[in-house]
Amino acid sequence: MHISEGVLSAPVLLGGAALAIAGTAIGLKRTDYDRIMPVAILSAAFFIASLVHVPIGPVSAHLVLNGLLGVMLGWAAFPSILVALLLQAVLFQYGGLTSLGVNTFNMAAPAVLCYFLFRPLLAKGTTFRFAAAFACGFVAVLLSAVLTAGSLALSGDAFNSAAGALLAAHLPIMVIEGVITGFAYTFLAKVKPEALAAPIN
């Protein structure tokens, strides 16, 4: 779901950049010093997971893991995802510098939203832990796909078909992300629960 250079219109680029800056500022302000290491580790996981692209028609699909980042980091998902996307743009030309703000917002905003939606359910106990974590991973990718498709659609009618193809291509990814997030969260809850101890704020 990396949008490349020269695709989006100026208003979409500026709006995405402004929202990404605001989200990153909030994330940095709410990130304690002792949480920097988990933020960096999850940024690296996001970086690696989204490097593997599977071509599907005019678009490509890849793992995102923004649901896992969101439920573990909260607002800190913004700077974590921003750093990963910046490195991908500079090192591998995935996405671009002008579209960095839009790409960051499209990935990080659903992560933060899922943090607030599902973290209270996950904190209540083990009964529905896997189901809630699955829903977190699924919904995060769904919302990211919708935002990315919307960014393309807002930039011109010529991108409507690509937007539709992007949504369709990520349907199986949503399920895969849900399963990965479910297993990862339940595993961490058993072996390293302190990694999931970020406060809800």
Automatic annotation (TrEMBL):
Bilayer disposition of the protein: Multi-pass membrane protein
Entry's Gene Ontology cellular component terms: plasma membrane
UniProt keyword Lyase, yes or no: no
Compartment list: Cell membrane
Alphabetical UniProt keywords: Cell membrane, Membrane, Transmembrane, Transmembrane helix, Transport
Annotated InterPro entries: CbiM/NikMN
Transmembrane domains' residue ranges: 36-56, 68-91, 97-118, 130-154, 166-188
Origin: domain of life: Bacteria
KW Transport (keyword) present: yes
Pfam families, A to Z: CbiM (PF01891)
Protein's GO biological process: transition metal ion transport
NCBIfam families in UniProt: PRK06265.1-4 (NF004904), PRK06265.1-5 (NF004905), PRK06265.2-5 (NF004909)
Protein name: Cobalamin (Vitamin B12) biosynthesis CbiM protein
Annotated source species: Pseudodesulfovibrio aespoeensis (strain ATCC 700646 / DSM 10631 / Aspo-2)
